[in-house]
Amino acid sequence: MTENQTFSIKSDSRSKALVEHVAEIIFTVCAFFAVLAVISITVYMFLNGMPALFQVGIREILFGTKWQPASADPSFGILYVILTSLIGTTAAILIGAPVGVLTAVFMEELAATKLAAVVKPAVELLAGIPSVIYGLLGIYLLNPVMYRLEIALFADSPDHQFTGGANLISAVIVLAIMILPTVINVSASALHAVPANQRAASLAMGASRIQTIFRVTLPSARSGIAAAIVLGTGRAIGEAMAITLVSGSSVNFPLPFNSVRFLTTAIVAEMGYASGLHRKVLFTIGLVLFVFIMLINICLTRILKGREDEA
What we know:
Helix content is 78%, strand content 1%. The protein is built from twelve helices and two strands, in the order ααββαααααααααα. A two-stranded antiparallel ribbon has the order 1-2. Helix 1 (3-56) crosses helix 12. It is globular. The relative contact order is 0.13.
C-alpha cells in the first residue's frame, strides 16, 4: 500500500468521524429542543391552569355541574364537560378504530393492486380535509337526519329539549370519521412492515388467509396498530372546530340526544371574550385536557411495553 493510499484512507476515516460527530451534535440538539418544548408547555399549562383551582376550589370546578360564568353568582362546574369528552372520545374510538384497522387490513392484505391504488389516495385525501369541512358536512348532512330521528323518538315527550340534531351522537359520528385516516395510515404501515416470511410460514402450515391475518399478521403488528389508536385518540380528544358545529355546545349531561360541550369546545366558544376569573378557569379546562392526554399516552405506552415484555 502506497503512502498516498494510506493518507487517503486516513483522510476518509477522519471525514467520516467528523460527519458522524456533527450529526450526533445535531441530533442531540434536536432532541434537547423537543424535550424543552414538552417541559415548557407542561410548565406553562400548570402555571396558568392551577390558580383557578385554588381560587374557585377543586371540588367546585371538577365536580360541579353548573357552568354559569357570566351570572351574578358565577359557577364554574365542568363535570358534565369532562364526562362529555370522555364518553364522546371513547365512543368515537370504539367506532372508528375497528373500522380503521379493518380498512388497513383490506388495503394491505386483501385488496387487488388496482383497487388498493384507488383506496389509498382516497384515505390520504380524507386526512387532508380541514376539520371545519367535516363540521359543515355534519351540519348540512348529519344534523338534519338526527333531527328527524329526534322528532320520531321524542315527539310525545314534553320535557325533551329539541336540539335540531346537534347532539352527542352527531359529534361522535364526526369524530369517528375524522380519526379514520390516522388509524388507517398508521395501521397500514404497521401491517406492511410485518415480514412476508411470517405469512408464508402460516400458509405453509395449512392456515387460511383469514386465519393468517388474525392470528399472525395482526398480532405481529399490534404495537403499530396500538400507536395508531393512540394517535387517533389524541386527534379525537383534541378536536374542537368540527364538533363545535355539530354538538350544540351546551353544557348538559352527555346523553345521546342532548346538546353537549366538550373540553376543547368550551375553550374555543368562550376564550375570545373571557376575562378575569372566567379566563383563568378556561386555562384550567385546558390543563385538564392536557392531563387527560398525558395519562392516556402513559397508560397505553405501559400496556404496550408490558405486552412486548411478555412476548
